[in-house]
Fold these 3 entries.
Entry 1:
Amino acid sequence: MPKCVTLIRNVEVADGSGRSPEIADVAIDQGRILAIGSLHNYEAENIFDGEGKVLAPGFIDVHTHDDTSVIRGPQMLPKLSQGVTTVVVGNCGISASPVQLRGEPPDPMNLLGNAESFRYPTFAAYAHAISAAQPAVNVAALVGHTALRNNHMDRLDRAATGVEIEGMRVQLQEALDHGATGLSTGLAYLSAHSSSTEEVMALAELLAAAGAIYATHLRSETETILQAMDEAVRIGKHAAVPVVISHLKCAGIANWGRSAEVLEWLDHARQHQPIGCDCYPYAAGSSTLDLRQVDERVKIQITWSKAHPEKAGQTLAQIAEAWGVQQIEAARRLQPAGAIYHSIAEQDMQAILRHPGTMIGSDGLPNDPLPHPRLWGTFPRVLGRYCREQGLFPLGEAVRKMTSLPAQRFGLADRGWIREGHYADLVLFDPATVRDVATFEDPVRASIGIEAVWVNGALSYREQTPTGERAGRFLPRRPNRSTR
Ligand code: ZN
Ligand code: CU
């Protein structure tokens, strides 16, 4: 009789391909998927009845700012409770490594923590720290352009010189040699906005030889978004690497209704080179409080403020009224601060979410005391609100966006599919009840309907409770041969 550690019986298997789920038994042994099919002759130490449930590859959160939280909070409950088994850190130009600070981290690196959180002068030191911390989820890491700039430049409101670019290239190469997944930029932020396209190209040139990718928070997500997308495409073409447009959106009221135009432009670019995007399933964004985004017509919630911590949770309109000033002046007084901007149209977000090239990325901010609910709700929200309730896509397609598509794009070998021999990163959920419960008013709440989560074969979450297993690994980039 064949033996295995874990057997999940009679379950609807959504294998990551995009196809509709099909009933099967799945056997797990030694951290990998041993067999899939009709396995009643198998003997197992642990047997799960999967009747009425769906088994999918563990979700891959391609857009996170979990760089320091995977080390400081290795239980990773916000992600594990959603069925996420791998996070990609280092997005938007900001990464925990390689970093040498002089003083406090500049905006928006401060989203990752204060100066004490940045302890990794080399990427190798960071990868080592992840392994030592034993997080509950796997971690793949990008290197942030802004982090590199800050290591080599006395001020960030200008383009880098040739010597500075050379210094950044040396550090990026060290990171790629130690398994970095790619380079990220945050060109909209003032700390990177003055960099030239050529500066980014000079860095991106190193990526192709390592099989790495370029992920970008565009230079503009508002009126000039198409020019910003064109810049991203030119950088990808110059470096001959795949491009991921981070949290694609049409931000700002003047930009509402443009998703069709933006996606048409993306489709055209996709005919010529590998390019995709990620998206979070909410009509609101969140980051540091940016004076350029203050618009009295847009609801802005303050998530934190160094100058006025007591104002966290209030809207900028309330604060401005209490102080008897304009919102822009209130925003100035709150600095440095964080905010949620309700500046996206629901219809645009849905159109982008539905696009076949769109992956799911939470963009959650784990250091915020009152975080945007995407930190705890993104993946169950895609399955519950957008797949089951609104019928935006079939279940198989929802799973593909969260599993095989990102595994292939980010070079996560033997993950993202339910296939024999693949790592047993798995999530068991109830398709009839799975949903997010975190809200803008009450954002720190675990989703419901996630029944069990395995990471590298270890049962890590069960019945709304972490088991205490922390079986995640640092994932160096390795192209996924099986899905090419
Ligand atoms: Zn971003
Ligand atoms: Cu981000």
Note: The mean pLDDT is 97.
Entry 2:
Amino acid sequence: MSSVTVRVPAKVNVQLSVGPLREDGYHDLVNVFHAVSIFDEVVAKEAESITVTVNGRWSDQVPLDDDNLAIRAARALAKHAGRSYGADLIIQKAIPVAGGMAGGSADAAGALVACNELWGLGLPFEDLMEIAGDLGSDVPFSLLGGTAVGTGRGEQLSELPTGGTFHWVFALADGGLSTAKVYAECDRQREVSGARVSWPELSAPLIEALGTGDAYALGAHLSNDLQAAALALRPELAATLDSGRQHGALGAIVSGSGPTCAFLAIDATHARDLADSLTATGAATTTVAAHGPVTGATLL
Ligand code: C5P
């Protein structure tokens, strides 16, 4: 095979509960991931060495050196297979960069699936999941997709049943936020407040809302422990969230570590109207309507 293409979705966190800081610098989480229909595409072509090219919106903000997650993923896969392989990776980005929607993780997951196929390795999904967990906390979910709860760093996943399709609007911000900085701000705020950090627990009403497909109940139970930290670093996001609520969003939340804001709509028509209202009022410059859950990294 000389070329393969993989499509990988973005995610929004419908519950992100952050436990105490661990000794390894990570936090134990209860992280409910939900894959949505904004996709990056990763093409892998036969080559002598592993290289990456990034096209599309914000592509200039993606590192092309050894920090690039798709390159790291391809290298980790070659190492796992115990051989030196090459691939030209060409990424078409639609997921915002450093936007709190797992764009980098999606590209890593895409590179794993694409190179596994290109190189004819035939590694089982479980092996890819293990390599994914070493690459980043959100990479296993980008492989899996759907809706799932992540514990540990967020990499230990259990799938969650959903009773229907949910319709979302995402307000994309100019410029990203560093995940590590948002977690650090969360720790700083907790230290200042002196409040005891409790062990994170899965929200029962949220699971019920997902299971029954009840968008109103899901909207009422969205939660994100990183939101206060993201708003401290980007105060203007508070007005974006407020505007979405005023225009009838069932729930409005910062996506992961931000700065993308996520709004839950009643249905596809409401999502389109909400997206238009957010841009017309100037609350957001760019909006995207999407639905979830969708499948994880998929070979086309
Ligand atoms: O795992 P990943 O490299 O995507 O995480 C990026 C950063 O986010 C980490 O370096 C850490 O600062 C923070 N993080 C955390 N706890 C987690 C996941 C991520 O503190 N469970």
Note: The domain at 3-160 is CATH 3.30.230.10 (Ribosomal Protein S5; domain 2).
Entry 3:
Amino acid sequence: MKRPHLLLPLITLCLTGCGHSPNVFDPQGPAARGIAQLGWLLVGLGSAVFLLVMGLLGYALFHRRSPAPDLATEHLRGPSATTRRWVLLGGVVLPALILAIVLVFTITVLRAISATTPNAELTIEVNGRQWWWEVHYPTQQITTANEIHIPVGQPVRVVLKAGDVIHSFWVPDLHGKLDMIPGQTNEFWLQADHPGEYWGECAEFCGIQHAKMNFVVVAERAEVFAGWLERARQPALTPSDPLLQTGQRIFLNSPCAYCHAIQGTAAVGNLGPDLTHLASRRTLAAGALPNTRQQLASWIVDPHQIKPGNLMPASPHYTEPELQALLAYLLSLQ
Ligand code: CUA
């Protein structure tokens, strides 16, 4: 019975160590709240039934009828009226009542959280890839990655797809999980009560880097969100600084441009994340690294050190000045 005591600090350590700790017991949106309430109801009813059964068992064990009944004659007489009542009440009526309560609450919550939202003003398409998230705002013609901006306090329609294998989209603070299946489109919605950052993760094993497939939902007040949309819609600026120009030339003449897109340049690849506003994002490599100059350098030179098996080839051939110019250019992509 020691194990839970060892596990708890370990889990706590991991959650704090990972820097963000989504918590299904602390819902931050209407859908997650419905799921949490249903969860607590199930835990409550389950605990009540457990205590009741244990209580009756204890009673039966410690309050033996005396003198001991003659089992042979009792068997011949059949169960008494009291025994019949106990079996009927505890074995039929009570379970039926509890299951009916659970059924009604489950159907109510499921209806509320799985309903598509015809009144959602914003639609976002999220495409699960090994091992990152392509995020597309079809009406606004915006493509980004691993970061989903939404306006706070209103439902946002989310269309889920998969580019290669099955993934599962999960923002524990805001909603339950929904699978992303190649060749199929699934749909649900997200809504956050308050502005903030809500971490999401892939909840379906999708290959060796499944654990490093995270993303963040950034819920913003309407005017802040409108500002983000406006910036995200802009193509990258053509650099005037010579260092940035060199960096851009290196990028466009390297294999980078075959897989990544930077709007406003000749790079239109769609195998990897869109980099048009790379510098504005919080993380690199789908939450695996903070977005800093040092980490970006490590990622470009040897991405397999950080996420073994990912599709981005290593680029150890850049000279130091080349790498610095490339970094300067990429970090100018606000
Ligand atoms: Cu994608 Cu697990």
Note: The longest helix spans residues 81-114.
